[in-house]
Amino acid sequence: MAKIQAIRGMNDILPEQTPVWQFLESRVRDVLSAYGYQEIRMPVVEHTELFRRSIGEVTDIVEKEMYTFDDRNGDSLTLRPEGTAGCVRAAEEHGLLFNQSRRLWYTGPMFRHERPQKGRYRQFHQVGVECFGMDGPDIDAELLILTARLWQSLGLADHARLEINSIGTSEARAEYRQALVEYLGDYRSDLDPDSQRRLLVNPLRILDSKNTETQRILENAPVLDDYLDDESREHFEQLTAMLDASGVSYTVNNRLVRGLDYYGKTVFEWVTDSLGSQGTICAGGRYDGLVEQLGGRPTAAVGFAMGIERLILLLETLELVPEDVNADADIYVTAMGDAATTEAFRVSEMLRSELPGRTVVTHCGGGSFKSQMKKADRSGARVAVIIGENEINEGIVGLKYLREDGEQEQVPRDQAARHLASRLGLA
User: Fold this and answer.
1) Contact 277, 167 (CB under 8 A)
2) What's 278's DSSP letter?
3) CA distance linking residue 400 with residue 424, whole number of Å
4) Fewest CB atoms within 10 Å of the CB: 63, 125, 269, 419?
């Protein structure tokens, strides 16, 4: 009988990999908590109409990439391709936005049927941050400042750069869109196929094209900045002043846009040169029109999303994952003989009680002293606790420091935790 394998582009995250995920997620959680952001958890399945109304019917995501199916009641449901729409739906449905501001974040899997490649999968994971009810540039600045702090926490500060832009109001973009279409119409046959299609349905996305010939054509195209309304221009000037005062470096990229109509004013991307073509590691902007578009009251909103797989790939590429992240244990307790096995459980529980937060692995399954010590070493533990008949009779434990040269120590059993805390700084 043939073995059943995982669906292409939907990967298992194995025990050897999860410590890096936990490391990244803990750093994200710590930074967001420090800024007062609250976690929200939404379903991975939503009504298809949610994404059609938020993302738009004429987009690659809705037309080609969504996993959509009819359930037994005949309702059209979709595995979420992104998190913002679901977060807005949840916040509006549960009254979180009524006469109040909110700072929310979430993490979890998203689903898009696109060609799998390194760092990009059909089931992928994101961290999303969404802020509601604050219309000034100060909350835009906060999002960028806290993200810069996250890069510092991860050791990525020198490997991520910020690009920002203002795309103005919908009225300003409509005027610019018309000018861009008129300009590009003269070069239609010279554009790459994707840009020819976008010229009809979403011409601003042509500015994102990676095609060199299209970029050459765009060199003399109208610039969005020339069409900005005064309010958007002032908003952007205040934002850049706040970033300057906070020491966050940035580049103004006049060709940076977001592909969905509900975005306005501030847009941004954090990009890296260390992943080749997979350069964007975080992207977002203001979407003041989305809550109303989904049936709520007009509500100011801004947010971003970052891809976890891509960030992990960046950390591993740059060898920025701390060595101890991949250790399965701090302490490995071995046992030689049946009586020692019983004693090992007693000692292990004592160590867990007296050294909270530390991982104590108790050897199970028997085996020779040599084989147990090999497993202790492979666990990544810094010390092996050795228990045999002599140790039981004398009320002691043996301690072998696996990452250091030196002789085995022997200490009284009831002093083992205190001794280890002092010797290894485990307290």
Assistant:
1) no
2) -
3) 12
4) 63
